[in-house]
Prior knowledge:
Substrate binds at residue 158. Keywords: Calcium, Disulfide bond, Glycoprotein, Heme, Hydrogen peroxide, Iron, Metal-binding, Oxidoreductase, Peroxidase, Secreted, Signal. Ca(2+) 2 binds at residues 240, 242, 247. One of its GO terms (molecular function) is metal ion binding. The chain is mainly α and 321 residues long. The chain folds into two domains: 32-157 and 301-308, Peroxidase, domain 1; 164-300, Peroxidase, domain 2. It has 14 helices and two strands. α3 crosses α5 (116-130) and α13 (271-282) packs across α14 (284-299).
Amino acid sequence: MSPLFSLFLLHIIVSAAGAQLRPHYYSESCPKAEAVVRHVMKKALIREPRSLASVMRFQFHDCFVNGCDASLLLDDTPTMLGEKLALANINSLRSYEVVDEVKETLEKVCPGIVSCADIIIMASKDAVALTGGPDWEVKLGRLDSLSASQEASDNVMPSPRANASFLVDLFGKFNLSVKDLVALSGSHSIGQGRCFSIMFRLYNQSGTGRPDPVFDPKFRGKLNKLCPLNVDQNVTGDLDATPVVFDNQYFKDLVAGRGFLNSDQTLFTFPETRAFVQLFSRDQHEFFKAFVEGMIKMGDLQVDQQGEVRRNCRVVNSRLL
Length: 321
């Protein structure tokens, strides 16, 4: 990691401390804002349950890159490579249309008031609450960025191959603790992952030409059938045994050697993170409490930059004129 990038991360952390975010930010300017977001997310759940997991991930992939500013949602332009085609996002992030629907609805209710960055925060929280997880009060008042950076996303977002040591260091640079890391990894309690992300675990872990020895044998057999060597690597599998319910099953699966991604299973094999995996596997309340704390801390990440409230989350306002 370059010294310049390390300084950039520090800048995010310092800026977050002075962020003027607060609950009920839209209580006067758009009092129905949070209710509108929840209503659209309920409709999305009925249409396609998996879409809620997809929308929840937007907070992670947005806030870690230049802070929580909805840069993730900007489409490419002739002069800007955005983040949608970054390595961690291409063929992986989906359900952008749900955010579009939220924004279109809010623009009818209170035009030009609610930022796309705040929509991501509210929708991520609703995705968790509507699938059985905790609910919490979010802080709002963010502005939307005027640009995006594919390079910045590639430099920050971890690979599914990442090990726990790397993840601990990365989260630490954002002032997120080991406990935050493990709890936030529990976002994989809902949703699916691609065969692309696990082929090396199944057939060539660490260049050995063999599967990851940590796999539970029956689970590995199941994944071998889902993801044979000749598979379309965009085929998806469940990230845990209850993929449409937000619960602590994810951690129980890690303890049993049934983690889907390497970056998940490594949390149990690494001594510094194992104790939290064990705790959360036993106590769902503790997991929920730690997850909320982590989401709030992540939502505080910002940088000092110009911003606006976009009328269309995919395009800066100047390009709509």
